[in-house]
Design a protein that fits this description.
It is a single chain. With 572 residues, this protein is an alpha+beta fold. The strands form two sheets. Strands 1, 4, 5, 6, 7, 9 and 10 form a seven-stranded antiparallel β-sheet that branches. A three-stranded antiparallel β-sheet has the order 2-3-8, with no helix packed on it. It is 62% helix and 9% strand. The termini are far apart. Helix 6 runs antiparallel to helix 14, helix 6 packs across helix 19 and helix 9 runs antiparallel to helix 18.
């Protein structure tokens, strides 16, 4: 499966695709005359409840709609995804995350405008929206072939939506939670998967109203908790932060040399992984969050889309940046080895064109002991590596307890026509995704990663999983009707358990799984956005003209904040 996903991702995430997504964001930024600034001004007023109206069609208020969408975007992509980007692409990947975050605000505003224009409000208290409704309703008028084409494209989008929901929105989250919980507390991954499945099931069985209430309470708490912990770490390293920004900018436009656990990275791979992880994290251009925003109570489509533009800012510019700076400023991304390979151990041929290390008695580990199950690697010199821009590669191994107090390392193999050589004798522990972020926090204050990051990982994962369940449900409704929603919920929860069975072991495998669904959705959603963009822009500029002329304005003073968060300000 991993071989298939790797081959598919090579196509889905080709540089041409990334440039198309970035170019689309730039065009929409100029077309909207920098909608980013409208989101940061007018969007905040809307979010505060000044425009909430209980009589408008919809199920939840603007704050809850944004929280439901953010509960999907502010997830393990912000903790584990950023760690993956830096591990594979180096510090320069962070710069390209910022670029996607800024231009992604215009992408998000445009796609949500379309979703709100074409949402299905036949049931005003339970509206449906998203790319599938946009294209099917836009092509509904005219010859029969246009109608069939609209339904076909809408159905294709729903299929990619469900693939994304079960991979990046569910299994990626569950795997990260299982990994970090096992790392710190020794809880078997499968137990974590079962607990997650039960918690998520209890929430999603209540529908969008319960999801909106849970998200409205959960998102502010989890973001604030993570924000405070990250600021604490950065405050202790305040003098080093300017140099870290310099490193990020330099690495964005040049290759990053190998250092410690980092084997090196080219500018191209910094661009690739920075954009890839940012799109996965903030979902700009992906077409998922418009589904959540379509449930908002409003009679003005653009009003909700301006709120939606805040998502990439909060997700990528704020939360992802905090994670990245913590990982870089603590030196976790290029950390030193935790053990040293004995001098007598040499690389040997295991078959024609295959090389490995013999089973090795695990040497003493710095600051800790081997508990079994750890994934490790050594760095070797071999054939050219396009990703690192040099000839360095990781040779992976797994620590196994042969008997109490005695650990051995069993090594995988490398392919090559010539025998690789050890670059150094350091043995590096492979901290994948969220585990790397937690280690960064722990390096500053022991226990900070163990407790705070583990807690936020659980909260981020749960929030993302419940939102993606709702997204997939809307795809089910479009494809097959309401009767299939309940069975899907049980399948969805069971996949959280399957993800923790141990078939994912490396950062590359995790990246392949989460990137597959995102890439598929972009291939469907971006063309639809281009096809329908003129209608979104017409609506956007009409709304802004009426807003600037004073024809529309807040209908009342801001309601009590607790009523906005709970949604009581729109209760009828």
């Amino acid at each position: 499966m991993n071989s298939f996903l790797g081959a598919a991702n090579a196509i889905l995430w080709h540089n041409a695709v990334l440039l198309l997504v970035l170019g689309t964001g730039i065009v929409f930024t100029l077309w909207t005359r920098f909608s980013q600034f409208r989101s940061l001004t007018h969007g905040l007023h809307v979010l505060r409840g000044r425009y909430d109206n209980p009589a408008d069609p919809g199920a939840i208020n603007h704050f809850q709609a944004l929280s439901a969408a953010l509960s999907a975007t502010v997830g393990l992509g912000n903790i584990g995804g950023v760690a993956l980007a830096i591990t594979l692409g180096g510090p320069g990947a962070v710069f390209w995350m910022w670029v996607v975050g800024f231009f992604g605000m215009a992408l998000k505003t445009t796609e949500v405008t379309l979703a709100m224009l074409y949402r299905n409000t036949s049931d005003p208290d339970n509206p449906h929206g998203g790319t599938m409704w946009v294209i099917s309703k836009a092509l509904a008028d005219g010859p029969a072939w246009r109608q069939k084409l609209g339904k076909l494209i809408g159905g294709l989008f729903c299929i990619t939506l469900m693939i994304m929901a079960v991979t990046g929105g569910n299994m990626f989250q569950a795997w990260n939670v299982g990994n970090i919980t096992n790392l710190y507390f020794g809880v078997p991954d499968i137990v974590t998967g079962i607990v997650l499945a039960v918690i998520v099931g209890l929430v999603i069985l209540g529908g969008i109203h319960r999801i909106g209430r849970v998200a409205g309470a959960l998102v502010p708490f989890m973001v604030t908790t993570y924000f405070v912990a990250a600021i604490y770490v950065l405050a202790l390293h305040a003098s080093e932060i300017p140099a870290m920004f310099g490193l990020i900018l330099r690495s964005a436009f040049s290759a990053t040399e190998a250092s410690g656990a980092f084997i090196g990275g080219t500018m191209g791979y910094a661009f690739l992984y920075g954009m890839k992880r940012a799109i996965f994290s903030n979902e700009a251009g992906q077409g998922t969050s418009p589904i959540a925003h379509s449930a908002a109570k409003t009679s003005e489509p653009v009003r909700e889309s301006v709120v939606a533009g805040l998502e990439p800012f909060i997700d990528t510019i704020v939360v992802c940046t905090l994670t990245a700076l913590v990982i870089i400023v603590t030196g976790t991304w290029n950390r030193p080895a935790e053990a040293v390979l004995p001098d007598e151990v040499r690389i040997v041929a295991t078959a024609a064109g295959e090389w490995s290390l013999p089973e090795t008695q695990a040497p003493a580990r710095t600051g800790s002991t081997w508990s079994g199950g750890e994934h490790v690697y050594v760095i070797v010199r071999g054939t050219a590596n396009r990703q690192s821009g040099n000839n360095l590669h990781r040779l992976a191994g797994t620590v196994t307890l042969a008997e109490p107090g005695s650990a051995v390392i069993r090594w995988s193999t490398l392919q090559g026509t010539e025998a690789p050589e050890l670059h150094d004798r350091g043995i590096y522990v492979s901290y994948v995704g969220a585990a790397l972020t937690a280690v960064a926090f722990d390096s500053v204050l022991p226990g900070l990663g163990r407790w705070v990051v583990t807690l936020t990982v659980w909260l981020f994962a749960i929030s993302t999983m419940i939102s993606y369940s709702y997204y997939a449900e809307q795809g089910i409704v479009y494809l097959a009707g309401e009767r299939w929603v309940a069975p899907f919920k049980y399948v969805y929860c069971s996949l959280a358990i399957i993800a923790t069975l141990g078939f994912l072991k490396s950062d590359a495998e995790l990246d392949n799984l989460s990137g597959f669904g995102t890439g598929l959705m972009l291939f469907v959603n971006i063309p639809v956005m281009w096809f329908m963009a003129h209608r979104a822009m017409r609506a956007y500029h009409d709304y802004m003209a009426r807003l600037d002329s004073g024809q529309i304005g807040p209908g009342h003073a801001p309601p009590a904040l607790r009523d906005v968060i709970s949604g009581h300000d729109v209760d009828r």
